Each structure stands twice: as structure tokens, then as C-alpha cells.
Amino acid sequence: MAQPRRMPAAVPGVGALVVLTVLASAAAGPWSLDVRSTGPPGPDDPLVAEARRTPGPLVTHAPTPSGEATASPWVTFVVLVLGTLVVVVLLLVLVRWLTQLLRAHLAPLATDESPPSVASDDVDDRWVPAMQHGVRRATQELDDEQPPGDAVIAAWVALEHAAASGGLVRDRAETATEFTVDVLDATSADPAATRTLLDLYLAARYSRHPLTADDVARARTSLATIANGLADRREGAHR
Predict the structure, then answer these.
(1) What are the distances in angstroms from CA 62 to CA 37, 46, 177?
(2) Which pTM was predicted?
């Protein structure tokens, strides 16, 4: 059953302004214009006839009745201000009503664009091969002729690129490093191996102590453990 539409909140205010306008006009009294003849009176003018009967000076202007008064300038100003306020309020009510109507029509078209969260069920057969390729690329970075710190950083960046190519959209508030950890945690990869490789990457980027060949060997071991976990998930998916 359709509910009756509610009266806009500004309608009582408009009514109050209208009432104030009427009261101001009533308080100012009746308006009249003092119209006086500028030409000479004609022979049929009552004043001329009266002057013919009664000697005395000829009166050419009728006196203004004492019961009538001309409109004061401040009354006109108040009425104009109140009228302007009424027009402005009516326009605001109209704009608000049109805005609500437009939102009501556009609301069904709105869609939830929030990116999906990383969970174990989201990691399908397309994502696991992407991460396996990332592990192979990271291992190659460790084997290249470059300083240990640079090799570890390049290895982790290879994993980040692989996670980004898996198909899920990274949340804007989440860094690429956090997203890569979430992706690996959603697979069968050993979480301890992931954290070991992450710690080496953070040390290579932010620590003042340079990494050594032993650190590169630890990173290579962690990558091998991660690769075994991804292979186990891949084989389990085809069973």
C-alpha cells in the first residue's frame, strides 16, 4: 500500500511568510493616491458653481480626505523584502524536491563497486599458475649477478606483480605488499616462508645493515617452500 506523501518541511515556513506579508499590509492601512487636477476647472466643476454663488476666492484643489493616507516608503520596502523571501524559499523547496526525485530514480542504478576480499575460495586455477610464475621469476632474480639487497627486493617485487595479475582488484587502502601476503595466505603456501621472505624484503629496503649472501640463500629457501605449497594446491585441484 502506497504511503501518502509528506508535506515538505519548508511549506509551513512559506505559509508563515505569506501571513506576515498580509499582516504588514493590513497594518499599513489603505493605500491611496492624491490625484489633483493640474488644469483649470471647467464650467461644470462643482467648485466653480459654488464660487459663482458664494463670493470669495476660487478653490481649484480639493482637500485630501483626512481618512486616507499615502503609502510610506518603509512599508513598501518591507513588502518587497517579504515577497523576495517568499520567492527564494519556494525556489529552495523546488530544488530540494527535484534533487530527491532525481536521487530516487538513480538509486536503483547504483552498484557496489567494492573490490572482493581475498579468501581461499577466491584463489582459482588461474591465480595459482600466476603465483607459480611469480615464484619462478623471483628465483631468477636471486640468481642474477646483483647485490644481495637488490636481489631480494627484485624477488619480492616479482611476487607483487604476479599477485596483481591474478584477477582480483586490490583495495585502495591496501598496499601491494599487504595484498601479496593476503594472496599467498589464501593458497597452500607456507605462511612462515612468506613472512621470512617478507622480513628479508623489508630489511633490504629499510634497514641500514646490508644483506649478505646468507640472506639470499634464506630467500631462495623460502621461495622453494612457497613453490611447493602452490604445487600441492594445484595438484589437489585436479584430483
Answers:
(1) 9, 11, 98
(2) 0.49
